[in-house]
From TrEMBL:
This is FYVE-type domain-containing protein. Residues 288-359 form the FYVE-type domain. The keyword Zinc-finger applies. GO terms for molecular function: zinc ion binding.
Length: 410
């Protein structure tokens, strides 16, 4: 945990505590990299899709070892995955653009293909089914999102965005579809019959969206990106508020939401896990000022040639104070702090004015963490949470499946 600049008693309303996930078991020696995973609630086991073109169901046997009860070979590599344990329906999207729907037998020993579509011309990056809307969605690197009727399998409509689609989420009640793209934008589409209207385009990330999580109760969307940032979008608030959650130093690979406990789990490429308290009151980070001189000492920045010439001085690099947004020179922002209320769980640069204020009025700047940080010690490719069981499954890039007890974090 980062050092705080002021030591003071906790005054935050956060209930996050400092518990860590407890490691339960691992399943190693997987033959190929796993692209998607689901932790079963009714059985001790997992469903996976892998680079070896398989769908596998692994169940724990009497000797405590996990063995496959299903190994289904596909014609192409599965790259996107959806599973509903109640209906036992599996949807997989493939690297070649096809989408397949399977049904697992109730004893989890066999799999039957129900239907398939050549939905896309390039790799499928996201699939999901909405039972209440009776729709199956898929999105792809071919820049399209397609929806089919979940009952008949007929294609209903499609929509093309400007960039490669990377992931998607859907709100059944409002029929809003959220699509992440390769440039860091999130498209908000309202799906009506065979057409979709672009409601909004959320632009704050600076690199590809890697994961989206939608919370229909709070009306909030969470996005994780390869720009290392998690953003909380207040969609229902309709004010366009977005809260930056800074806790990672590597690309975010997966987000999972604990809806009842109001926790968001974010994991990155080096295995750093952050569990965010979504009930905590947060402050929107300020916009960055665009100035040509330091707003504290007035030193010109290096592109401000006229002032540099007039004053016979050398220009300096511009930085931005993360808590007030001022444009400042290096000398005027040589302090770092965490500031959880603004989403900075890792230390960030602040200007000397803010630093002095924080020291003079510590009661106004609560620095109690609003997230738990821990290391899973390996880069994680996919993750799934069974909130009722309090269990998290994560699969590493090294093909190891790890199961954690996270009840104390919920
Ligand atoms: Zn300065
Ligand atoms: Zn400042």
């Amino acid at each position: 945990m980062a050092a705080t600049i002021n030591d003071r008693p906790c005054s935050s309303a956060s209930s996050i505590g400092d518990h860590k996930p407890e490691f339960l078991t691992k399943i190693d020696n997987q033959i190929a990299r796993i692209n998607g995973i689901f932790l079963l609630a009714k059985e001790d086991g997992v469903v996976t899709i892998g680079e070896d073109r398989t769908i596998r169901v692994l169940l724990k046997r009497d000797n405590d070892q996990f063995w496959p009860s299903i190994v289904e070979y596909l014609t192409s590599v599965p790259t996107a995955f959806y599973f509903d344990e109640n209906t036992l329906c599996i949807i997989v999207g493939m690297v070649n653009g096809a989408v397949y729907e399977f049904v697992v037998s109730p004893d989890l020993n066999s799999l039957q293909q129900k239907r398939s579509w050549h939905a896309h011309t390039l790799q499928v990056t996201g699939v999901l089914m909405s039972h209440s809307a009776e729709l199956i969605f898929s999105c792809s690197k071919d820049k399209t999102i397609v929806w089919h009727c979940a009952n008949t399998g007929t294609k209903i409509g499609s929509y093309v965005i400007d960039n490669l689609c990377t992931t998607l989420e859907f709100d059944s009640d409002s029929r809003i579809c959220f699509i992440g793209d390769y440039n860091g934008s999130i498209y908000v589409l309202r799906v009506v019959g065979n057409s979709a209207q672009l409601v909004s385009k959320l632009s704050a990330h600076t690199a590809a969206i890697s994961s989206l999580a939608w919370d229909p109760v709070r009306g909030q969307l969470y996005s994780g990106s390869t720009d290392q940032l998690v953003i909380m979008w207040d969609i229902a608030g309709q004010k366009g508020s977005c809260y930056e959650l800074n806790g990672h130093n590597a690309r975010i690979s997966s987000l999972v939401l604990a809806r009842n406990a109001s926790r968001l789990f974010s994991i990155d490429d080096v295995g750093h896990l952050v569990v965010w308290d979504l009930k905590a009151k947060r402050i929107v980070a300020p916009g960055w000022h665009e100035k040509d001189n330091c707003e504290i000492c007035d030193a010109p920045f290096f592109w401000n040639v006229r002032v540099m010439w007039d004053r016979k001085t050398v220009g300096v690099r511009r930085h931005h104070c993360r808590t007030c947004g001022q444009s400042v020179c290096g000398n005027c922002c040589n302090n770092k702090t965490i500031f959880p209320a603004m989403g900075f769980e890792k230390e960030t640069r602040i200007c000397n004015t803010c630093h002095t204020k924080m020291q003079q009025y510590p009661e106004q700047f609560d620095l109690t963490p609003l997230a738990i940080q821990c290391e899973l010690n390996k880069g994680v490719a996919a993750m799934h949470l069974q909130e009722e069981l309090g269990r998290l499954v994560a699969v590493g890039y090294d093909r190891t499946i790890m199961i954690w007890d996270v009840r104390k974090l919920l």
